[in-house]
From TrEMBL:
Species per Swiss-Prot/TrEMBL record: Comamonas denitrificans
Name of the protein: DUF937 domain-containing protein
Amino acid sequence: MNLSEELLAQLQGAPVQQMAQQLGAGTEQVQSALGQVLPVLLGALGHNAAQPQGVADLLGGWLGAGAGSSDGAALLGQILGGARGQVESQLGQASGLGDKIGPLLTMLAPLVLQFLSQRAGNLDAASVGQLLGQETARVPQPGGLAGGLLGGLLDQNGDGKLDAGDLFKLGAGLFSKR
């Protein structure tokens, strides 16, 4: 069972019903959306963890303080960066939740980080990086919603390919935030 499936299993039942009620959406619709959203969030975290100092930042910053944080919007901004609007738009359209996808993502960001924090409690930084890397590799890159969104997060120059130019821009963006 991969991380997305494991987290989805933990959210079954009352958590999904509560999210659906808060969003004013159907339980089945939220359940279906989670199957699309979780791979994107975990894949984006995997991408962030693959950057220089990524796992250290993830463990030290996001998981340390983020796991207890209730500010889902700020956490989501850290996870998705400048691609947040595009991700919300595409996921909202694909899931049928429309503008309710933003609040769902905001609810999920702290839950995903809490889940990773629990998993990281038994793992070292290299193991967490490897685990997230495996999750990123599971997302189909060329097709599928999750693959397309993750590719969009990584493709910084919009040429449809992940290449050295994209990696350079990602790295420069990371260092300019510090």
